[in-house]
């Protein structure tokens, strides 16, 4: 949104205002920066969700392995006791 006033009036009056030529970031503005931040945040949140799902799946698999090991142990003790 263009400004309705010149924010550089005072520096111009003081003689310290200088315009610079084209450079690599001359097209970057606040809206673009915010957009990049939001995109990065979305990617971060997606990674965190994926990690959460993975951790939940791994925990369930580990619980299943522990229960299977306990079951094998119980069956082994029962066979030895006969």
TrEMBL record:
Database matches in InterPro entries: Rossmann-like_a/b/a_fold
Region (Disordered): 49-82
Ranges of biased composition (kind: Basic and acidic residues): 55-82
Domain of life: Eukaryota
Name of the protein this chain belongs to: Uncharacterized protein
Source organism of this protein record: Ophiocordyceps sinensis
